Every structure is written in C-alpha cells, then in structure tokens.
Amino acid sequence: MSRSGQWARAQLLRWGAPGIGLALFALWEAAGRMGLISPLFFPAPSVIIDTLVRLFGNGELTANVIATVTRVMSGFLLGGLLGLSLGMLMGWSASLRQVVDPLVAAVHPIPKISIFPLIMIVFGIGVLSKTLVVAIAAFFPMVINTMAGVRQISPSYLEVADNYGAGPWKVFTRVILPASSPMILAGVRLALNLSLTITTSVELLMAQDGLGSMIWLSWQTLRIEELYAAVVALAVIGILFRFTIVMLTKRLVPWQSRESA
After folding, report:
1. Is there a single domain that holds both residue 51 and residue 178?
2. What is the pTM of this model?
3. Rounded alpha-carbon distances, angstroms, from residue 78 to 82, 105, 219, 224, 237
4. Are both 221 and 159 inside the same structural domain?
C-alpha cells in the first residue's frame, strides 16, 4: 500500500466513527426540524443539549449524577474488593477453586436485579439493600477475572522467584500481582459497567434520586428530553470509567499498553 493509501486508511480509522456519529446527529436534527420524526419521543439533539445545560445549571442533573455515582462506587468497592481477594485465593489454591468455582458458576448467571426483592426483605429498603445488590453484581467479574489472571501466570516465573529466595510477600508483590494486573483491570472495567447498569435499574425500581429515578420520572411525565439527558449523562459516566481504566493500565501495566498500541 502506498504512503497516501496508508495515510488515508489511518485518517479513516481515526475520524471514521466520529464522522459517522456527527452525520447521524445532523440527520436526526434535520429530521426533527422538518417534522419527519415525532419531537415528543425523538427531540432534536439541540433540544437535548439545551436540556442538559438547563439541568446542569439548576443543579438537578449534578445532584442525580452524584447520587448514582455514589451508589456505584459504594457497591463496586465492597463487591470488587471481596471479588479481588477471593479471586486471588482461588487462582492460587486449586483445592479452594474446586470447592468455590462451581458455586460461582451456579450463581453468576442469575440476573442480580431478580434477587433485589429478597435483599430488600432481609435488609430493608434503605441504602444497604441498594449497595448490596450492586456489590453482588461487581463481585463476579472481579472474582472470575482475577482468578483467570492468577492462573495464567507461567510456572517458570514462580520457579525463578523461588530460585532467588523470594518469600511469599515478594512473590505476591513482584510476580503474581503484576502478572495478573491486566486481567484484574479488565475485571474492574466490567465490574464498573455492570455496577452502573444495576444501579440504574435499582433507581428505576425504587429511589428518590439518581439518574435511573430521573429517567423513570421523565417518562411518567413525558418530559422525554430530560430522559435523553439522563441517558447522555450515563453514557458520559461510562466513558469516564473507560478513560480511568486506560490511564490505570498505562500507569500500572505499561507493557500491556505498548503491546496494544
């Protein structure tokens, strides 16, 4: 391929997706202004942007975003840390893995939102029940990815560490943790996204604040532009989660970043 062809291909890869997105938004805007689509259910992008600015200006959107992110992070930290710890132990101990892995395989496919009523019966309808269901959702991606990350470590690395007289703590900090970090960070990304999904679902069901509650109230009152604004806010949170994981990957596992570049 010629240099001009390579340059054109690089520019297409770089600007193709944003260009397609802008074109779709332009078509959406034009169709809305010409009355080709219902402005009630498909408000023009300019209307959604105006709504975002208004909700951000009066503090309503900020308050709901803070409520949602607080629930996400509370559940993620609780479930993620437990999943990380158990995943490390399961990856290291074959006997523990044989006992616990079938239980994880049995419970993992169950939709976490389906057990929310049971959690409310046991723990009430307060903050704790909402945090627990998010923690359960975050637990499984962390435990599975962490276990897989530890198990894929080559035994030769452990043999080299043993030959140099490394103790258990050094083996953990110098071999196991760095080698399993790419899989752990992948689990973090999955757990964060799933935590956000479950949090929004819980807020749709029963919450006085949060983006899920905002979506449900907007639908009930047919303020559809506010519904779209809440969805956009959720998308931005997801993008920020991804950006954070990318930055952590570059910082903690730079060799992984170079390989994927």
Report:
1. yes
2. 0.84
3. 6, 20, 32, 34, 20
4. yes
